[in-house]
Write a structure and sequence with these properties.
This protein is an alpha+beta fold. It folds into three domains: 4-158, Rossmann fold (3-Layer(aba) Sandwich), CATH 3.40.50.10140; 169-178 and 260-428, no CATH class; 183-254, no CATH class. It has helices at 15-27, 35-38, 45-56, 66-71, 78-87, 125-138, 150-157, 234-237, 254-272, 353-364, 369-383, and strands spanning 4-8, 31-33, 57-64, 99-100, 119-120, 164-165, 169-172, 175-177, 183-190, 204-207, 210-213, 225-233, 242-246, 249-252, 276-278, 285-287, 311-314, 317-328, 334-344, 391-397, 400-405, 410-413, 416-417. The strands form seven sheets. Strands 8, 15, 16, 17, 18 and 19 form a six-stranded antiparallel β-sheet that branches. A five-stranded parallel β-sheet has the order 2-1-3-4-5, sandwiched between helices. Helix 1 runs antiparallel to helix 7 and helix 3 (45-56) runs parallel beside helix 5. The longest helix has 19 residues, at 254-272. It is elongated. Residues 37-43 and 423-432 have low confidence and may be disordered. It comes from Chitinophaga caeni.
């Protein structure tokens, strides 16, 4: 009796999904065959695969992706041989049941399965699994006792030895260090009218009737005078709970105020450089609009990495790589830069949150760690105006800058790890 479900997938591109699907089906009691588990060193690969498909399998499930469709065009690849063998099995109705895990156009499916209905796992893996299991039950695919060690199978499939190499590697963080300004100023300005923050050349925050800044009173516009100005060494007040400025004002929690000023400083700088701002609950996200002027690839030759894009097109929408930041003082002054993806329509309008979330899952699921890192490096390098010293100089006073390193802190590891190779798709199309 034929009992096996044969999973045909590309290696290593789609290993993660294939192992996930196999472990779920095993947990339900299905007899699953995938290459990661069944073949060992010394096996005669193809005869065993052919025998499993023709003699032992009740169901053949090709895991369709862009990498699968690319490889199946080559008659020497395993996936071509597998699906061609399955296509010759005529004594089982509905033997082939494709599942699709990305935005591959059905017209690009392998010729052996053109016209077959595929189950969509792209939007939601769990919903795709539910649909697949219903089909398996309806077609009465044999089911036995649940696999008792499906979790062990999952863990064994990702043994560290299979992804680690002995080549030293830089492990980058998302911490970008900066020089902490030497002095903090507390001003009491005389304002003749209500002024917008953008009326001022340098950043400050407002506490009551005081301005807190890194610039002295001389750097105010000539139309503004100050009743009083006090300066403090930043290092002296960081650990204080409160600092008495004068008889009428106490600077409570100086460290928190300094962090607030630092956050405002970098946010104002990004906005003034022309980046767009997307408000979210924790902190605003800044991004370059996906226009022709920002679609040119950014060189990462200084990092021995490929050129990278920080904007592009995804289906009929546009994506932009975005960043949000938060200043921290200890163990050293640095900005923690988090990565985001923002989607807009062809009028450069930011999409509604629900649609953003859906598109983010689709596009982001194809980005590996190195993709996120390279986009972050490219983004910071672009913000620095491709400064050869990899520094972002933010004016904070007439003669002072907040200098941020555009290269994140990193550690050197004695070992590196391997990530799946992938082909660039239309999801990241750019105009050079």
């Amino acid at each position: 009796m034929k009992t096996k479900i044969f999973l045909s997938h590309t290696t290593p591109e789609d290993n993660y999904f294939a192992i996930w699907l196999a472990s779920k089906l095993k947990l339900l009691g299905y007899d699953v065959w995938i290459e990661l588990e069944e073949l060992s060193i010394g096996d005669a690969f193809w005869p065993q695969i052919e025998s499993t498909i023709r003699e032992d399998s009740a169901k053949f499930i090709p895991i369709i992706s862009k990498s699968y469709c690319a490889k199946v065009k080559n008659q020497r690849t395993g996936v071509f041989k597998e699906i061609s063998c399955a296509d010759r099995v005529k004594n089982i109705s509905n033997f082939i049941s494709p599942v699709c895990i990305d935005a591959t156009n059905p017209d690009d499916f392998p010729v052996q399965i053109l016209g077959l209905h595929s189950i969509d796992f792209y939007d939601n893996w769990q919903e795709g699994l539910d649909t697949l299991v219903k089909n398996l039950k309806r077609q009465q695919i044999p089911i036995g006792e649940p696999e008792s060690d499906s979790i062990g199978f999952w863990l064994d499939s990702f043994k560290i030895g299979s992804v680690v190499n002995d080549k030293p590697e830089k492990i980058y963080t998302n911490w970008f260090d900066f020089n902490l300004p030497e002095k903090l100023y507390v001003h009491q300005p005389v304002l003749s009218r209500k002024m917008d923050l953008l009326d001022f050349m340098f950043p400050f925050i407002v506490e009551g009737n005081r301005h807190i800044s890194f610039f002295p009173a001389d750097d105010y516009p000539q139309s503004i005078s100050c009743t009083s100005t006090y300066s403090f060494l930043v290092d002296d007040i960081l650990k204080e709970k409160a600092v008495s400025v004068d008889d009428f004002f106490i600077l409570n929690d100086p460290k928190r105020k300094i962090v607030k000023l630092l956050n405002h400083t970098i946010e104002a700088f990004l906005y003034q450089k022309g980046l767009k701002k997307y408000e979210q609950s924790k902190s605003p996200v800044f991004f370059y609009p996906s226009t022709e002027s920002h679609r040119k690839r950014i060189s990462l030759k200084d990092f021995d990495k490929n050129n990278v894009s920080v904007t592009g097109k995804h289906i009929d929408k546009f994506w932009s790589f975005g960043i949000s930041s938060y200043a921290l003082i200890y163990p050293f002054p640095y900005f923690k830069i988090d990565s985001h993806i923002i989607f807009t329509n062809n009028r450069h309008e930011i999409l509604e949150m629900d649609e953003q979330h859906k598109l983010r899952r689709k596009l982001g699921s194809g980005w590996y760690n190195k993709d996120w890192l390279e986009k972050l490096l490219g983004m910071m390098y672009k913000i620095s105006d491709t400064n050869s010293e990899h520094l972002i100089n933010i004016p904070i006073a007439g003669s002072a800058f907040l200098t941020v390193n555009s290269i994140p802190k990193y550690i050197m590891s004695d070992f590196g790890y391997l990530e799946p190779q992938k082909q660039e798709t239309d999801n990241e199309a750019t105009v050079d």
